[in-house]
Design brief:
With about 550 residues, this protein is of the alpha/beta class. The chain has 23 helices and 18 strands. Strands 16-15-8-9-10-17 form a 6-stranded parallel sheet. A hairpin with a 2-residue loop joins β6 and β7. This is Serine hydrolase.
């Protein structure tokens, strides 16, 4: 018996109920139709690869590659995709990590009917877009849908059977939303708060104040016990560029799981504000503005570097990215959506699903991550606020107030972020923390151990000087010359034509002539090294 035996609602309604990175395969027992359902934002990406005779489908890239390998099919890696993801996390600017592979579009699901495959649109998309058009916007109603989703998401995550439930605290607004939702859910007794960094750090006071006020235990455990550096850049890049959903960026020193934990994240909080400022507004008219915007969201490799070296990405790749951005904008025009919505819509298509959405499973070998802020109604709710009110953080503060009127009134890290809100929407009173940090139950003994496989800890004077000049740990500075050397070796292996499609080789050669002079140079070397290392690895 299947988990959904007896389910008698339309398949699309099941898909529309998914919150977060999950894919469900469902067969209709009445007619044999098969559905591949994922969340409407496409956070759980569904990959498709067509051979001469068959179409292969999976939400797991490693498993899809394994099946293709068993069928003697070897897809070609996309260096363009790796360059885009390494530079800016904007995987959606180039669709898939392998040439010829496709990713199911956002707001879509798959239907397989008598060997015929088709992409269908979730009806919920049009309801969301109708709200975006402002035809019948009711801000209070929309925000209540978001608040209900967040509370339900936290409750569902809290019922997950695991050794520990962890919520990170730093005093930031989005983490206070999570804390308010935990209190609303009634599951606050199962959570331990994790404070990243020092208890004497800049943002620790209010984070510890919140924990102390509600007597939450505070732990150094982020969900894993051992963090490791392989000690060799190419090996480290395997950790940084996870392949769970296509070269996902994970932490530079991921943990080896010896705990079984669920960690709440808040990646979708970027929809509270404007992810890319005013660039989108200006990019629709002049070609120069379009190029500036494209380079901006393409990150460090796309931006010009003054007199030191020019843009590191090739003109042809920048042109291709500009074309993909325009395709996204064209969809917005075809849907008759407001011009202002471009910023969040573009972020959702190019970063939301490839970075924040996928964070919930990119670390799955180590810890389970879940983002309770995932709500299909967050996009229209955000755009029901004026641009000024979004900049003043009215949306997250309203959500916190709706979830828990008390917790919204405690001090914040940056008073300037909240003063306009409290001036315009005064509460009965502002509160101070009832318990000093000294009253908090602290457990710092379970912080992760950091293990380096570097054979020797002796660093040269050159490495020490470089670390000081760039303001980076000396172990990272020690990698700099290895990055340069490895990049040159990779460039000998990779066809010039492939390299020229991605990189401005003149600028790249200038970058590689010397040790990095600035932190930006070091980061560029690291990014290029990581994407080339992935490309040449078998």
């Amino acid at each position: 018996m299947g988990a959904l035996d007896g389910y008698d609602r339309p398949a699309h309604e099941l898909g529309e109920s998914i919150r977060g990175a999950l894919t469900v395969y469902v067969e209709d027992s009445t007619n044999g139709d098969v559905y591949v359902l994922t969340d409407i934002f496409g956070s759980s990406m569904v990959f498709q690869y067509a051979s001469d005779q068959d179409i292969y489908i999976s939400s797991s890239l490693p498993k899809l590659l394994s099946v293709l390998t068993s069928m003697q099919i070897k897809p070609e890696k996309s260096l363009k995709y790796a360059a885009m993801l390494a530079s800016s996390n904007s995987g959606g600017l180039i669709d898939a990590p392998y040439v010829g592979m496709q990713v199911l579009g956002q707001f879509e699901y798959l239907k397989i009917q008598k060997s015929r495959l088709s992409s269908e649109t979730y009806p919920l998309r049009d309801r969301i877009f109708e709200e975006l058009r402002g035809y019948k916007t009711d801000l209070g109603k929309l925000r209540q849908l978001v608040v209900t989703d967040i509370a339900n998401n936290v409750a569902a995550a809290s019922e997950y059977q695991t050794r520990s439930h962890i919520c990170h605290i730093s005093g930031r607004l989005e983490e206070r939303v999570l804390l308010a939702a935990i209190r609303k859910s009634g599951f606050e007794h199962v959570y331990t708060m994790h404070l990243a960094g020092s208890i004497n750090g800049e943002n620790a006071e209010n984070a510890l104040g919140l924990a102390g006020n509600y007597k939450y235990p505070v732990s150094g455990n982020p969900g894993y016990e051992i963090a490791m550096m392989a000690g060799e850049p190419t090996e480290d890049s395997r950790w940084r560029l996870h392949e769970t959903a296509g070269l996902l960026l994970g932490p530079a020193t991921p943990g080896l799981r010896s705990t079984n934990s669920l960690v709440l994240t808040a990646g979708f909080s970027k929809m509270f504000r404007d992810p890319w400022g005013s660039f989108v507004e200006e990019s629709a008219t002049q070609p120069s503005s379009q190029l500036q915007f494209a380079r901006s969201i393409m990150g460090p490799l796309g931006n010009a570097r003054g007199d030191t070296y020019g843009t590191l990405l090739s003109d042809s790749l920048i042109t291709e990215v500009m074309g993909n951005i325009e395709s996204i904008f064209k969809k917005i025009r075809n849907f008759n959506l407001p011009h202002d919505v471009k910023r969040n819509f573009l972020w959702l298509a190019t970063q939301g699903r490839y970075l924040d959405g996928e964070t919930s499973r990119s670390l799955s070998p180590y810890v389970a991550r879940f983002d309770p802020l995932y709500s299909p109604w967050l996009l229209p709710t955000s755009w029901s606020y004026s641009k000024t009110d979004r900049a003043r953080n009215y949306l997250p503060l309203d959500i916190i107030s709706d979830l828990d009127m008390e917790i919204v009134s405690f001090p914040y890290n940056k008073a300037i972020e909240v003063e306009p809100y409290f001036s315009e929407r005064p509460l009965a009173r502002r509160r101070s923390f009832n318990h000093p940090p000294s009253d908090i139950e602290l457990n710092w003994s379970n912080r992760p151990s950091f293990v380096s496989h570097r054979v020797t800890q002796e660093y040269s004077q050159e490495e020490l000087a470089l670390a000081s000049r760039l303001g980076i740990p000396v172990r990272n500075a020690a990698y700099a010359n290895t990055y340069r050397r490895s990049i040159l070796e990779f460039m000998e292996i990779i066809d010039d034509e492939v390299l020229e499609e991605c990189f401005n080789l003149s600028s790249l050669n200038k970058l590689l002539r010397n040790s990095p002079r600035r932190l930006a140079d070091y980061r560029a070397m690291k990014m290029i090294h990581d994407c080339l290392a992935w490309y040449v690895q078998e």
